[in-house]
Amino acid sequence: MRNRDWHDDIVLYNRTLELQPDAWHIRNNLAGAYWLRGNAAAAEREWNEALRLKAENQIVLSNLGLAYSKQKKYPEAIKYFQRALEIDPKLTDGHLHLGEVYLELGQTERAEFQFRAAVALSPLNTRARNRLGQVYLDKGRLGEAEEQFLRSVESEANATGYDGLGDAELARSPQGKAERYFARAIAVDPFDSHAHFKLGELYAKSGRNAEAVREYQAGLMTDPANAEALAALKKLTREVRDAKTPKS
Q1: What whole-number distance in Å separates Cα of residue 101 and Cα of residue 146?
Q2: Long-range contacts, stretch 94-103, CB < 8 angstroms, 24+ apart
Q3: Who's near 235: CB < 8 A, 6+ residues apart?
Q4: Quick one: CA torsion of 61, 62, 66, 68, rounded to 10 degrees?
Q5: Most-buried pick from 25, 71, 81, 169 (CB within 10 A)?
Q6: For 96, how many CA atoms within 13 A lie in the half-sphere containing its CB?
Q7: Are the beta carbons of 157 and 183 closer than 8 angstroms?
Q8: Dihedral of the CA atoms 66, 67, 68, 71 (nearest 10)?
Q9: pTM for this structure?
Q10: Among the residues of 55-158, which ranges form H helices?
Q11: Could you give the residue range(s) of every CATH 1.25.40.10 domain in the chain?
């Protein structure tokens, strides 16, 4: 009979709360389950109730901050992340998520500070490394950006890290090692549209039009509305067709 409860996380947590209504950690888990199902309102309700039961718990506060940030309610998100970090300054996700909110608001210096804190606390965290690397890349601090992306892929092979290395290499020179990095990104994630588009661009510049067409087509499978890629593919397709047409 209990298998019907265990089959679904939401049902299981709700059944548990019928017996233990004050179990804040179950409400926190239930909120997470609602969040994964796309029910933001229910998740927020359960996290607030968990916070009422377990006042000033850093995990619940951080989760609420994340919920508000996803809804673009940035002032509320900042407030909850800051409260979480006041309780536990070593909360890596709190620093990381707060930095992402600052980045959305264009407050780059504050974002960098939070990402640096996240990296210092969790050196193997690829997301923190990639976020900090992207901040450096956007500022033109290529050496520092490359260091962060390299540390990221050394920790765990990931497409975002390889994309960052490719972008940094392109900023240094027209091609260089960029092609190799983007190819590695695709090996990790075949649906990485950024890497496909960058490879398409590189192939087109070196006259490898058929390969460029293939990469643009692959990238458009996951980013079909990319105007720049659509225009490039249209131009390349015409050039490939014209090259095959016999001249009279």
Answers
A1: 23
A2: 94/58, 94/62, 94/65, 95/121, 95/128, 96/125, 96/127, 96/128, 96/131, 97/62, 97/65, 97/66, 97/69, 98/65, 99/131, 100/69, 100/131, 101/65, 101/69, 101/74, 101/77, 102/78, 103/131, 103/135
A3: none
A4: 20
A5: 81
A6: 20
A7: no
A8: 120
A9: 0.85
A10: 58-70, 74-87, 92-104, 108-121, 126-138, 142-155
A11: 1-55, 191-243
What's 1-55's CATH class?
mainly alpha
* pLDDT for 247: 60
Q: Are 87 and 54 in contact (CB under 8 A)?
A: no
CATH topology of domain 191-243: 1.25.40
Cα torsion angle, 5, 11, 13, 18, sign:
negative
